[in-house]
Specification:
α1 packs parallel to α2. The chain contains 7 helices and 6 strands.
Amino acid sequence: MIVGVRHARVWNPEGLVYASLPGFHLSDAGRAEAEGLARSLASAPVAAVDASPLDRAMETAEILARPHGLEVRQDVRLTEWSFWSNWQGLRWDKIRERDPELLDAYGIDPAACFPEDPLASVGERVLAWAAEADRAHPDGLAVGVSHEAPLMAALLMGSGRGMSGFHSQNLPHLGSVRLLPGPTEMVDLASWSAIC
């Protein structure tokens, strides 16, 4: 099984859009939650843990890989959607003030709002990672730690739904998407690991 996991909660008291900025690390609560998921997966057949190169994803992946003695591999296909770099370092509550047209475009049609890195391309990258991980680890669980937008895009593409459903679902921190075998769907990874 190939699964994508959203990184754990981040320490961000200023409420900034961190996008691809370095230095945004897991909060104490996020670290504790990741450690809880790692304990749940300790007896699962985890064969590989890959991650977006961003700090929050790498830290989450390292916690998940530790019980299995695995080294985390960085994979840029799992990185955050570059759209968010438009507002990186800006407080979330200031986005409308600075960029109302782009925010409205994102709200109306997220798939078309950023032609420089279309949301469908982001989903395709995650699915390409999953296909490669499946070929490399056909009998084990490969975990890819990523971010909400890439995982939601992959979920929608892998289940044959269009990007119009992008705003209708939310993937919480440490939420999981089974990418393969398809069709893609959200899964409770801790519950799954209890029965494997």
